C-alpha cells in the first residue's frame, strides 16, 4: 500500500522537478525520507516531482510497505549531499531568505521577480526579453530553497550514512541541492568551461590566519545621499532615488531601490561562495515614511560599505557598472545586458579563482568549517537574545525611565509650589532653584526616551544585518562540504578533483575570513559608537544637573 | 433622655479631667458637641470627664433632649478657643505626635513614660522621686492631645460662632485647650509671675522680614559620633551611647537616647511657642540593626543642628547642661533636678520675652499667621506626595533600573561568548572589550541600585523630619490665636492685655521666621547635596563607560 500524505498548505511549483500541491489534497509519497526538506511523490493530477516536506503531513496509518518507484526515492541508490543547518527557528514555509530579510529582502530571483508589482512597476522601458522577468522560467542557480523547509537537521543525520554508501563519483541525484545548483558539482567534475579574462581573475592568498582574498589594491568607498522623491507619468507614479558618489570616480550617479535589487540578483548568481549581504528590507506600504526611509538608507550605507570593502565584490564588472554608469540610457542598458549574459556565473565562477600555491589539508579545512558552523549558530542565537534585551531596554527607557524622571521632576515642582506659599523674600531664590531642578529632571526624562535611537537602535540594526548575512553561510558551507564529501567518496584519488576541491575550499575559507574581519571591524566600531553616545548622554545629564545646581548658588 | 454613645476603643485616662472608657461600654454624653475632638460625659462607673470623640460612636436614636449637666457642656456659657488644623490624614486614635514620629517619636511625657520598658529600663539609679515616672501624675503642660482626635475641622467651624458669644475676658472653660495648657491664657490674664534672671531673657528684635529671635552672639555646633554599644549588669543589658562634642567646649560627653528623650520633654515644657523638633523615632525591636542606627544618628545630627542653630534653644540651661555636663554623676543629677524644677515653664516662659519696641499691628499678625497656616498645609500635603514619588523612584532604581542595566550587561557578555567561538586571533581583543562592556553595565546597574541611599533617602528623611516639625505648629498657632481672640473679645481695651498679647505674637512670628530660615537653609543644602551626588553618580557612570571604551582602542 502506498504511503500517503495530506497537503497542509498550497505550494506552487516554480522550478522544474517541483510539482504543485493544493491544501487538503492527498499525495502519494515514494518514500518517507526527506531530501533536505523535500519529499518526492505524485499529486492527484498524476504529476511526479518534489514538494516541501513541511507542507504535508504523512498519514501514518497507511504505511504498510515502501515501494520504490524510482531512483530518487531509494536510500540505497542515491547520494545525498551534505547539507547545512538552518539558523532560523521558524519552520513556517516561506520563500526567500530567512533572518534579516523579513521575507521581503529580495535576494533570490524569485523574490526579485515576485515583488515587481509592489516596487518595480516602473522598471526601465526595455523589452520583456531584457527584463529579469525572464528568469522565472529558468532554474535558479542559487539558494531559492535555502530557508524553505526547516527540517534539515534530521536529514543531516542520515546524510552521512548515505554519502558513505555512494561508491562512485557520479552526479548528485538531488537536482535541488545547493551544491548542484551553485555549480559546485559541475565545477568539481570538471564540467565548467569558460574564457576567463585576466581582469576577472580572483586571487586567494595565504595570509597569517589562513586563505584570504587578495587585498584590494585600489580601495574606494561610496557615499549614499539622502534619497529624493521623484515622480513620473505626470506625478502619477513616485519613487525614491539615491545619489551615490564612489570615491574613485567622484561622480554622482542616481539609483533606485530596484536597481540595487537587480544588482543584488546579479551578484548572487555570479558568486556562489561569497556572501552577498541582503538589501535592507522593502516595504510596500508607507514607503515614504521618514523613519523607514532613514532606516533603509542606513541599511544601504552598511550594504555599500560591505560591498566596497569586499576585495572581490568591490571590483566586479556589474558593481562597477552600477556605480559608475551615468545618465546615458544606452550605456546603462548595454552594461545591464552584458551583466545578465555574464558567462562566469555558477560553476564557471570557480574557474576565475587562483588558489595559493600551497594546497590545503582537507582535514584542517573540515575542522575550520565545522568551527565556523558552530560560530554562526552561536552568533545567530545570541544575536536574537541580545536584540530582545536591548529592544526591551530601549522600550523601558522611553516609557519607565522617562516616566520616573518626569515624576520626580514634577514632584520637585510641587515642593517648590508649596514653598511659594511662603512670601518671605529670602525664600524666592530657593523656590525658583527647586522648580528649575524639577524642569531639569523632566528634561532628563526626555533624554532617556530619545537616547536609544542614538546608541541602542544602531546595535540592534547591525545585529539584524548580521543575522541576514549569517543566513547566507549555510549555502556557502554546503557547497564546500558537498565538494569535500564527493572527493572523500572518490575511490581513485584524482589529482584534478583534489585541485578543484581545493579551489572551492580556498574560496570558502577566504570568504569566512573576510566575514570575521568585517564583523570585528563593524562590531568594534558599533560598540565604540554606542559607548561614545552613552558617554555623551550621561555628560549631557551631568551638565543639566550642574546647571540646576548653579541656581542654588545664585540664590545665596 | 440622655444622649448615649458606644465606646469603640479602649481609652485609659492619663491626665486629670479624662476618664477611662472600655470598648463596647455605653457612656452618657452631656453634649454632642466636641471640644477640639474631646467629648464630655459619664462612664458606666459613674466617673465624669473627657474622652476622645473619635473613640466613641453616638447612638443617634437616643437623642431626644440635651440636658446641660454642667457649665462645660453648654454651648452658650462656654468659650471655645480657636483651634488648629491637624495635618495628619490619619484618624486612627493614637497618642504622641503625628507625622514623622510614627507614634513612637517620644515627645510628650506620655510617650517618654510609656515606653520606658522598651528603652529606658536602665534610666539612672536615682530614686523614683527624681525620675520622669513621676510626671504621669501631673497634668502635661504641652501638646499631649495635639494629634489625638482627628476631627478638628468640624469644631473649627462653630468655634468662631462661640468665640463671638463670649462677652467677657474670663477664663477659658475648656481646661484642655492648648491655649490654656501652654500657659498662654494665664500669661495673657496677667497671672504669670516668676523671677527672670538676665540670663534667661529672650529678645525678639524687629528684622527686615518682621520679628525674629535675636541673633545668637555665641554660635556653636555640636558633632555626634557613631554610637557605641555599651553593656551593664554583666552584659545582661545593652544600650547605645552617643559621643557629643560641642564646639564651644570641645569636650566630649556621652549621652544615651533616653537622655535625649528627657531633654526633649524639658524643652517642650519650657517653650510653649517654640517648635522643638521631634527626636528620631525609637524602635524597640532590632534597635542595634545597622541601618536603623545609622538613620537615627542622621536624625539626631539634624536635630542637634536645629538645636544649636536656634538662638533660644541653643543657650537654654537644660540644653547646655545636657551638652556640657561630664561623667560626674552628682553634677548631672543636680542639673537634672534643677531643670525639672525650672519655674520659667508654661505661662512664665512668656515673662522671659523682651519684645521689640514697636508694637505689632494685630491685623497684620493675623494675616501673617493665616498665611503660615496655608503654607504649612501645602508643605505637609506636598511633602507626602513628593516623598511617595521619590521613594517609588528609589525602589525603581534598586529594582527595574538595576535589572535593565544588568540584563544589557549580560546580553553583551552573551554576544562576546558567541564571538569567542571564532578562534581567530584578531577577534580576541574585541571579545574581551565587549565582555568588559558587559561587566561595566552590570556595575552601572549596581550603581543605580545603591544611589538612592546617597541622594534620595536624605531628601525623604528631611521631608519626614519637616513633617514632624510642621506638626508642632498647629499648637503654636493655637496659642497665638487664643490670645488674639481673647483680646478682640475684650470690651475694655486694656493696655496690659494688648502688650502681653503682643509678646505672644512676637514670639510666635519670631519662631515662624526661624522655621522659614532653617527650612530654606536645610532644603537648599539638601537639594545641593542631592544634585552634587547625582552629578557624581553620572560622572561615575561616565568614567565606567570611558574605561570600557578604552578597551576597544587597546585592541586595534
Automatic annotation (TrEMBL), chains A, B:
SUPFAM superfamilies with a match to the protein in the record: PX domain, SH3-domain
Compositional bias per record (Acidic residues), positions renumbered to this chain: 117-127
One GO location term (cellular component): plasma membrane
Residue ranges of domain SH3 in the record: 1-61
Biased composition (Polar residues): 65-94, 144-157
Keyword terms of this UniProt record: Cell cycle, Cell division, Cytoplasmic vesicle, Endocytosis, Membrane, Mitosis, Protein transport, SH3 domain, Transport
Domain named PX: residues: 220-330
Compartments, as annotated in UniProt: Cytoplasmic vesicle membrane
Its membrane topology: Peripheral membrane protein
Predominant location category: membrane
Record's protein name: Sorting nexin
Species name: Xyrichtys novacula (Pearly razorfish)
Amino acid at each position: 500500500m502506498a504511503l500517503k500524505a495530506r497537503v497542509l498548505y498550497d505550494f506552487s511549483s516554480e522550478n522544474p522537478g517541483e510539482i504543485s500541491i493544493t491544501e487538503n489534497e492527498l499525495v502519494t509519497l515514494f518514500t518517507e525520507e526527506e531530501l533536505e526538506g523535500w519529499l518526492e511523490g505524485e499529486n492527484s493530477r498524476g504529476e511526479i516531482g518534489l514538494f516541501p516536506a513541511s507542507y504535508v503531513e504523512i498519514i501514518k496509518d497507511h504505511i504498510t510497505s515502501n515501494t520504490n518507484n524510482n531512483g530518487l526515492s531509494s536510500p540505497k541508490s542515491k547520494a545525498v549531499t551534505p547539507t547545512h543547518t538552518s539558523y532560523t527557528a521558524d519552520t513556517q514555509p516561506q520563500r526567500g531568505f530567512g533572518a534579516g530579510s523579513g521575507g521581503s529582502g529580495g535576494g533570490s530571483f524569485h523574490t526579485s521577480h515576485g515583488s515587481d508589482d509592489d516596487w518595480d512597476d516602473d522598471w526601465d522601458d526595455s523589452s520583456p526579453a531584457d527584463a529579469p522577468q525572464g528568469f522565472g522560467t529558468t532554474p535558479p542557480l542559487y539558494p531559492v530553497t535555502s530557508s524553505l523547509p526547516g527540517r534539515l537537521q534530521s536529514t543531516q543525520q542520515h546524510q552521512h550514512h548515505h554519502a558513505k554508501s555512494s561508491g562512485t563519483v557520479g552526479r548528485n541525484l538531488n537536482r535541488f541541492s545547493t551544491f548542484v545548483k551553485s555549480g559546485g558539482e559541475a565545477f568539481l567534475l570538471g564540467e565548467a568551461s569558460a574564457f576567463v579574462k585576466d581582469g576577472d581573475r580572483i586571487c586567494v592568498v595565504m595570509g597569517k590566519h589562513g586563505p584570504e582574498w587578495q587585498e584590494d589594491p585600489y580601495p574606494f568607498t561610496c557615499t549614499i545621499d539622502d534619497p529624493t522623491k521623484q515622480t513620473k507619468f505626470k506625478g502619477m507614479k513616485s519613487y525614491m532615488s539615491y545619489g551615490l558618489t564612489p570615491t574613485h570616480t567622484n561622480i554622482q550617479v542616481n539609483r533606485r531601490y530596484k536597481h540595487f535589487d537587480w544588482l543584488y540578483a546579479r551578484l548572487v548568481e555570479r558568486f556562489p561562495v561569497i556572501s552577498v549581504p541582503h538589501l535592507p528590507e522593502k516595504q510596500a506600504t508607507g514607503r515614504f515614511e521618514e523613519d523607514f526611509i532613514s532606516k533603509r538608507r542606513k541599511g544601504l550605507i552598511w550594504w555599500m560599505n560591505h560591498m566596497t570593502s569586499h576585495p572581490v565584490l568591490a571590483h566586479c564588472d556589474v558593481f562597477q557598472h552600477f556605480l559608475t554608469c551615468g545618465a546615458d540610457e544606452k550605456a546603462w542598458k548595454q552594461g545591464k545586458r552584458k551583466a545578465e549574459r555574464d558567462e562566469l556565473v555558477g560553476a564557471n565562477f570557480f574557474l576565475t579563482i587562483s588558489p595559493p600555491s600551497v594546497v590545503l589539508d582537507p582535514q584542517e579545512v573540515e575542522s575550520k568549517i565545522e568551527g565556523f558552523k558552530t560560530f554562526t549558530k552561536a552568533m545567530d542565537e545570541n544575536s536574537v537574545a541580545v536584540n530582545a534585551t536591548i529592544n526591551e531596554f530601549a522600550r523601558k527607557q522611553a516609557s519607565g525611565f522617562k516616566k520616573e524622571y518626569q515624576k520626580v521632576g514634577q514632584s520637585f515642582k510641587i515642593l517648590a509650589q508649596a514653598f511659594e506659599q511662603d512670601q518671605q523674600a529670602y525664600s524666592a531664590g530657593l523656590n525658583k532653584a527647586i522648580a528649575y531642578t524639577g524642569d531639569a529632571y523632566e528634561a532628563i526624562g526626555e533624554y532617556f526616551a530619545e537616547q536609544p535611537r542614538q546608541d541602542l537602535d544602531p546595535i540592534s540594526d547591525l545585529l539584524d544585518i548580521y543575522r541576514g548575512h549569517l543566513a547566507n553561510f549555510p549555502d556557502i558551507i554546503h557547497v564546500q562540504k558537498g565538494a569535500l564529501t564527493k572527493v572523500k567518496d572518490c575511490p581513485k584519488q584524482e589529482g584534478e578533483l583534489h585541485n578543484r576541491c581545493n579551489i572551492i575550499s580556498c574560496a570558502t575559507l577566504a570568504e569566512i575570513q573576510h566575514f570575521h574581519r568585517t564583523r570585528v571591524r563593524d562590531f568594534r566600531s558599533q560598540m565604540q559608537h554606542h559607548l561614545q553616545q552613552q558617554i555623551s548622554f550621561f555628560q549631557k545629564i551631568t551638565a543639566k544637573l550642574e546647571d540646576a545646581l548653579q541656581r542654588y548658588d545664585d540664590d545665596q
